[in-house]
Design goal:
Two copies of one chain form a homodimer. The first copy, chain A, is α+β, with helices and mostly antiparallel strands. Chain A is built from six helices and 26 strands. The first copy, chain A, folds into three domains: 125 residues, DNA Polymerase III, subunit A, domain 2 (DNA Polymerase III, Chain A, domain 2), CATH 3.10.150.10; 135 residues, DNA Polymerase III, Chain A, domain 2, CATH 3.10.150.10; 115 residues, DNA Polymerase III, subunit A, domain 2 (DNA Polymerase III, Chain A, domain 2), CATH 3.10.150.10. The longest helix of chain A has 15 residues. The first copy, chain A, is elongated.
Chain lengths: 396, 396
């Protein structure tokens, strides 16, 4: 194999695929990145795969001789990222045949303006292929729609690997909408997006979607975080092609492909957790509430992270307070539009802050019934989002 | 005590003194910051002290009632740093006398535009005073001169607490110059500065220094890093007042005071380590050599950090190379002006890189004798700096 490419192309693509390289590989070959050069297409592709998440990217190169090799991902990435800008000559044809008689001794040579680096790799044969989707559902999803859905759900997934199904985002594909949901058992976030972005001003109207049957899947948060990163690099008008087989999903965007296993099992029926009616409602400026929580969280940190919300209906004020015995106390007061009677209720400040950070609107509505029943936060205007928080018990 | 001050003043000064708060205090009171308000001067001062390093800063405030209190540094700093901009009312006069009858229960109340925070502190009586310098040497040192000296020496101090004396910078005060030296046993850095900054263009000429006797001291690197930070906040023309007692040193800059114990023991006689004559000399572009070392260090990292320098006198090239068996190899070549015969010599790449980062000039000179004798690096022009590196043995 022999090709010439730009340092920036090789560097950018290597750092992208490197994110699918497992930190503790179950098989040595998985610590590698698969590099292959295609003479006909004049392009080079890189692949990394941890058996769950796989990423493949392709970029242009002047390919003289095609071939494949597996190279240690970290070392290769570390070297390439430091090479000077400009052209790199990649060559893995053994020159010292005397020394490298064994088949496994694949050596890649990188030559740049200032020097020459050799990296010992291994045969590409051992590297597992990325799964292909044979005949499942497929659809196109606009990058903006996907980003919106992920932003509104990813933060609420569970980090606890024993709760497998909760480590993913559950996506429901309806004919006209997508629903993204995540819960870790303490809070729930549901975001509903139109399946096409709204046409802005002069822009071309989106092509009408074909009638589509309902389907759903649970996708690991880790894969979706990489997808988010990938999508952020894509253009504004672009779409991502999604295809789904039982147990496997693939996303494709211009020169990139991401595959992931899907999570098995029944996703909780979260719809039934969301109350339909509320006795109380508060409208408050999101940033002001968030700042107040950030301040008071310093003291809440000393007391199980619990913050008391005192809803003062008469004064139209929302008061926050923490009493941490032996350390200190804090209180904050905000103007709020309150309907319903006054009430004291308490929350885990971390969940409340994360929720507010992800709601995105200027004002938020907090809808609630009693001090022990679930509370719903929604943005005022914008995307349709529902965050559900469980209150915690107030100990006096 | 009762005063009003700006959140930004309290915040900035708190974060500055907090750096002298020990992470594992030997006595509980040392985890506090001492706050005291002076009614006559209309100013507030903050002090932190870990029994070796002490920092005291002063800022303006509207002081209504004076007093002192010791407050838990981390919590207090965390709260103040998040308070909204604007005025803060500080008050430690107990209101609920019923609750706080015991003497030790000092409670500080901070009131800002949005809320109110209480922090439990302790009596200021237990807080140790910062050492005062009675009658030792003293001198003024221009901030620029100090910064130059520290930049040229601090990096080479030892981090090994068992080598006490080497964890500091040794400063020699000559009548017309200052000499800053540091060594960790593997490398040595010596920087000599004029005792006054050179007058630039139209600026006023520096006032002639009074005849001064020679003295020297070894100052802990930790205190000097804080001094560097403090000096960086000072104005360009300002000077720092230094005063020295046996075992104790103090630096004063407008509203800040830093004290530190000095390190006891005989500092190595480093002058005798620096060779007087050299058989070979290389002049090379500093940044190019540094970049090449940064690249090749990735492979050196796999092989004890050793990089071979091949000095090619005929070709007027400096070649760098690493052979890491089973992993790969790398080589770089740079143009250089070389006098003397060709030679192969090896260095620890980390020390070579750190040295080059701190030399600061566009070109550097590498002066050497044999592959096993100490090598000297100096900048071409600028401040007088001498870096000495010990070569390491090359194993083929």
């Amino acid at each position: 194999m022999k090709f010439v490419c730009k340092q920036s192309d090789l560097g950018t693509n290597l750092s992208l695929v490197s994110r699918a390289v497992p930190s503790r590989p179950t098989h040595p070959v998985l610590a590698n990145v698969l590099l292959s050069a295609d003479e006909e297409k004049q392009e080079v592709s890189l692949t990394a795969f941890d058996l769950s998440l796989g990423i493949k990217t392709t970029f242009e190169a002047q390919v003289e001789t095609e071939g494949t090799i597996a190279l240690p991902a970290k070392l290769f990435n570390d070297i390439v990222s430091r090479l000077p800008e400009g052209e790199i000559l990649f060559d893995d044809e053994a020159k010292d045949t005397a020394e490298t008689s064994s088949e496994s001794a694949a050596i890649a040579t990188l030559t740049c303006a200032t020097g020459r680096y050799q990296v010992r790799g291994m045969s590409a044969d051992e590297f597992p292929s990325l799964p292909t989707i044979q005949e499942g559902q497929s659809l196109e999803i606009a990058i903006d729609v996907l980003m919106e859905g992920l932003r509104g759900s990813l933060f609420a997934t569970s980090g606890d690997e024993t709760k497998q199904i909760l480590t993913g985002v559950h996506v429901k594909v309806h004919p006209e909408t997508f629903e993204f949901a995540a819960t870790d058992g303490h809070r729930l976030a549901v975001t509903e997006t139109a399946s096409h972005p709204e046409a802005e001003g002069e822009e071309e109207a989106p092509k009408p979607s074909e009638p589509r049957e309902f389907f759903e899947m649970t996708i690991p948060a880790r894969a979706l975080r990489e997808l988010e990163r990938m999508a952020a690099m894509g253009g504004k008008g672009e779409a991502i092609a999604l295809s789904l087989d039982p147990g496997q999903i693939a996303f494709e965007l211009s020169n990139q492909r991401l595959t992931s296993r899907t999570l098995e099992g029944q996703y909780p029926n979260y719809g039934q957790l969301i109350p339909r009616s509320f006795e109380r409602q508060i409208t408050v400026e999101r940033r002001k509430l968030l700042s107040a929580l950030e301040r008071i969280s310093i003291l809440a940190d000393k007391k199980n992270n619990i913050v008391k919300f005192s809803i003062d209906s008469e004064g139209q004020k929302l008061r926050l307070s923490v009493e941490a015995a032996d350390v200190g106390s804090g209180e904050e007061a905000l103007d709020a539009q309150i309907s319903g009677e006054s009430l004291d209720i308490a929350f885990n400040v971390k969940y409340a802050m994360e929720s507010l950070k992800n709601l995105g609107s200027q004002e938020v509505q907090v809808k609630l019934n009693t001090a022990t029943s679930p509370v719903v936060l929604t943005p005022l205007g914008g995307t349709k989002m529902t965050h559900l928080l469980m209150p915690v018990q107030l100990r006096s």
